[in-house]
């Protein structure tokens, strides 16, 4: 019952440069393996530069890996194309540290949440209705769909980011530092919401953070990365009780 299998994955960046001396090879992700059970929450923890985001980008297939396999429902995602790739993209959605960066400042937030469903064939009217339902689901007023991004606080914008990701009814949600830009009290509320949504929707969560305290709070298992390698791996309770 594992939904995602990451098997000996390696991703290397070869940075260009007109001159040979400027060319660099970075082993961003090095022989990384783990499995994510359906409905579970795995934490990918590590300091800045440890390879967390690269790994996330490989999982959502924004980057192609150099070695290894990533399997979703036992299918190698490298083999997906056309329709099956579209299905995969839909099934794995991402939320970011700062949803403000990806929200269009000039467009009503509800319309932005409705874009995804429309890309997948929903009418604008149904997609807007869906946006209202999603706003309620993430703890916002359904009438807030008519507002613009700057009218919301950081925590509320993270809720909008969640609504947008959930609009496509994904099986997996990849959250990249979703609470790192928020005040501690607001962090608690958003983590609480994520845990609720996970239960209610049967979501599988991949939670990326540099913050051990936050990871301990929401994850059942953890991998700790350093310089592209997994340096520790196990149940959250085990990883965090080590001296
Ligand atoms: P984290 O998310 O843990 O901060 P990253 O995955 O962003 O780590 O980075 C891992 C390593 O890969 C770092 O050394 C970083 O400098 C390097 N890196 C990240 N993105 C690129 C890129 N597009 N080109 C070259 N090197 C990169
Ligand atoms: P293509 O037409 O190339 O198959 P799409 O344009 O349908 O791809 O979508 C590209 C990706 O962006 C998909 O993974 C889709 O799920 C995602 N996406 C598009 N709009 C949204 C949105 N509003 N919220 C979340 N994800 C979105």
From TrEMBL:
Q: Per its UniProt entry, which superkingdom is the organism in?
A: Bacteria
Using the record's annotation, list all stretches that form the ABC transporter domain. Answer: 4-243
Subcellular location(s): the record lists: Cell inner membrane
The entry assigns this protein to a family as follows: Belongs to the ABC transporter superfamily.
Q: What is this protein called?
A: ABC-type dipeptide transporter
Which species is this record about?
Answer: Zophobihabitans entericus
From which lineage does this chain's organism come? Bacteria, Pseudomonadati, Pseudomonadota, Gammaproteobacteria, Orbales
Instruction: Tell which residues of the whole protein are contained here.
Output: 272 to 514 of 545
């Amino acid at each position: 019952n594992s939904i995602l299998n990451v098997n000996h994955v390696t991703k290397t960046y070869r940075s260009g440069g007109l001159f040979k001396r400027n060319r660099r090879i970075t082993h961003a992700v090095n022989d990384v393996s783990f499995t994510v059970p359906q409905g579970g929450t795995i934490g990918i923890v590590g300091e800045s530069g440890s390879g967390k985001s690269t790994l996330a980008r490989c999982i959502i297939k924004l980057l192609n890996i150099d070695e290894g396999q990533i399997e979703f429902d036992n299918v190698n995602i490298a083999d997906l194309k056309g329709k099956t790739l579209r299905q995969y993209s839909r099934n794995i959605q991402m939320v970011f540290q700062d949803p403000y960066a990806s929200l269009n400042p000039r467009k009503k937030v509800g319309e932005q949440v409705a874009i995804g469903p429309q890309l997948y064939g929903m009418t604008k009217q149904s997609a807007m209705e869906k946006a209202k339902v999603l706003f309620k689901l993430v703890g916002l007023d359904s009438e807030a769909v008519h507002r613009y991004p700057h009218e919301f606080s950081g925590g509320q914008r993270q809720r909008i980011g969640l609504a947008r990701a959930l609009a496509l009814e994904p099986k997996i949600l990849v959250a990249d530092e979703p609470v790192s830009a928020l005040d501690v009290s607001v962090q608690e509320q958003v983590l609480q919401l994520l845990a609720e949504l996970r239960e209610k929707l049967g979501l599988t969560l991949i939670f990326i953070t540099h913050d051990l305290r936050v990871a301990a709070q929401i994850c059942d298992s953890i991998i700790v990365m350093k310089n592209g390698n997994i340096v520790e791996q196990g149940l959250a309770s085990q990883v965090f009780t080590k001296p």
